[in-house]
């Protein structure tokens, strides 16, 4: 996928990768589940508009954070190596606890943080940080993007209300591929 990401132009690459990954089954001869999720995290950077105040300076890196146990290993680092978003170099940072959280544009919250999920979301407030998790029911609880594995396929649930509250417009191209979720209305498929 990294080769694909470097050979197609910007948005076309992102859309193609998401569609291919949504349709592909997770099997031994296919990319691993966390390789696929790492590419999704990278591609989310193309489908969300971050406000200028999401960065402390024009040269600050675009950071993807991982909070809790790291299921990606080196896969996430490989997915973003050498990549830039709107002039910001992509980096990956790992945080062991909520107390260590620092500025990041995308935050993957690992299952190990399930008991603290509500506290994590409160601590983030309405920061311009796209929250992503695979915790069951995370989108209904306020996480913006939830990975769901069904029939060996990775699906997305997106809480548009939570993204809107954080000032993060999500592209309709990504929304079309997801189930839209809101705490008020449960889940609906677009």
Helical/strand content category = alpha/beta
Task: Look up the CATH topology.
Answer: Rossmann fold
Number of strands: 9
Anisotropy-based shape? globular
What sequence of helices (H) and strands (E) makes up the elements? HHHEHEEEHEHEEHHEE
Please, how many domains? 1
Give the low-pLDDT segments: 1-8, 11-16, 18-28, 185-190
Count the DSSP helices: 8
Reading side by side through the largest sheet, how are the strands ordered? 2-3-1-4-5-6-7-8-9
Distance between the termini: 27 Å
By CATH, the superfamily comes out as Response regulator
CATH architecture level-2 label: 3-Layer(aba) Sandwich
- Give the CATH level 1 class: Alpha Beta
Bin the strand percentage. 15-25%
Kindly state the mean pLDDT as a whole number? 84
Oligomer: single chain
> Quick one: biggest sheet?
9 strands, mixed
Which descriptors would you attach to this protein?
single chain, 190 residues, alpha/beta, Rossmann fold, nine-stranded mixed beta sheet, 33% helix, globular, disordered N terminus
Task: Compile the SSE list and pairings.
Layout lengths: L1 H6 L2 H14 L9 H15 L14 E6 L7 H6 L3 E2 L2 E8 L10 E4 L7 H8 L5 E4 L4 H4 L3 E6 L2 E7 H6 L6 H4 L3 E4 L3 E3 L2
Parallel strand pairs: 1-3, 1-4, 4-5, 5-6, 7-8
Antiparallel strand pairs: 2-3, 6-7, 8-9
Helix pairs in contact: 2-3
